[in-house]
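Duplicate of #3305? Posting structure anyway:
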């Protein structure tokens, strides 16, 4: 009878050992595998982070001496900016205007970003991509654009 009890306890120990081993392997597998729950971003999230981190935003205030356009570039006082379709031109009240409506001598605020995303890689990382031009103060003697 003692031998029968010993046989069962060996099987129980063997089963318990196999169970612990399987549990350990499962826990180790879960922590080693790539999972978004533990910080591995999806492809979409990685792209979104890449777009957000690609470059810096900046604002600059300047007095307009000259505005020259050449293809997709705008030269403000000789400094080049990239013009995009989304570039917004505003008067001092925030209303949309045309680029031609910005008079020489006006004080303007330039909002741009540097760095490039995948779509803008042709411009280079140091290109200033213009987002918005706003007239802060029209020149003396000029009426605001209506």
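Output from current build:
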């Amino acid at each position: 009878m003692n031998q029968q009890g010993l046989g069962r306890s060996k099987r129980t120990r063997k089963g318990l050992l196999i169970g612990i081993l399987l549990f350990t392997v499962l826990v180790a597998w879960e922590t080693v595998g790539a999972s978004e729950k533990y910080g591995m971003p999806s492809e979409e999230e990685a792209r979104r982070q890449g777009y957000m981190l690609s470059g810096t935003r900046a604002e600059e205030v300047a007095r307009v001496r000259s505005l020259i356009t050449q293809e997709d570039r705008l030269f403000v006082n000789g400094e080049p900016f990239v013009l995009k379709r989304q570039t917004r031109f505003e008067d001092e009240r925030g209303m949309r205007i045309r680029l031609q409506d910005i008079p020489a001598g006006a004080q303007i605020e330039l909002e741009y970003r540097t760095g490039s995303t995948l779509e803008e890689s042709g411009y280079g990382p140091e290109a200033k991509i213009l987002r918005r031009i706003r007239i802060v103060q029209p020149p003396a003697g000029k009426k605001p654009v209506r």
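Confirmed duplicate; merging threads. Helices lie at 2-32, 43-53. The chain has a mean pLDDT of 79.
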